[in-house]
Amino acid sequence: MSFSIENSDGIARLTLDRPPVNALDLETIERLRDTFAHLAAEPPSTGLLLTGSGRAFCAGVDTRAFAASDRERRARMILSITAMITELYALPCPVVSAVGGHALGGGFVLMLGGDVRLAASDPQIKLGLTEAQAGVAFPAGPLEVIAAELSPELLRRLTLTSATLAPAELHARGVIDELCAAAELVPAAQSRLHALAGQPGFAQVKAQIRRTTLARLRALVASGDDPMIAGMA
Questions:
Q1: Rounded mean pLDDT of the chain?
Q2: Cβ distance 146 to 110 under 8 Å?
Q3: Which end of the chain is least crowded, N or C, by CB within 10 Å?
């Protein structure tokens, strides 16, 4: 199993679990897409807690699997990534990302899908958008999310230099909302979910502030195409 879901107290806790670094292969991406779609149809009453097992939250796309795939399978993965992040970004219920390990590339984008983002206060954790270093471009969907969620200065720095920052650095820039001890990460995330869900207008306001980005994401999904595919060898 590449991830698991546990339901308790109105919270769906999704734990990425694909050792060693919870990288995303095609099957995991498609399962996540379908899971987020199911949660949208039947939202948990309190919300979704998104986390990872082991030393990584998620190290992004499995670049070895991507490189070893034929063109058709790589194209399918690119389109599935955009569909998956669209389903996550559109969830009406509260979503809290609880980051206890490295979040790189697509894993960083998954983290940004959270309405609130918590991270362990560990200076060894690396957070960043390292596609340039990995030699893999961005699918169109993740580009929309990072443009919506990051300041232009931080977007430029992370994407063009492949810099990785510690949680404290991203907390100072407002990308991470709270730092806490690793042992307190999940309880703190659960508390945040209850606080978000306690607001009667949460879903309506979330839909308002994400409407423009979601419209672009849904148009990308409906197109069935991506500029990244045309650029592949």
A1: 96
A2: no
A3: C
CA angle 190, 113, 38 (to 5 degrees): 80
Confidence bin at 1 (pLDDT 50/70/90): low
DSSP class per residue in the chain: --EEEEEETTEEEEEE--TTTT-B-HHHHHHHHHHHHHHHHS--SSEEEEEE-TTEEE--B-HHHHHHS-HHHHHHHHHHHHHHHHHHHT-SS-EEEEE-SEEETHHHHHHHTSSEEEEE--TT--EE--HHHHT----HHHHHHHHHHS-HHHHHHHHHH--EE-HHHHHHTTSS-EEE-GGGHHHHHHHHHHHHHT-TTHHHHHHHHHHHHHHHHHHHHHHT--HHHHT--
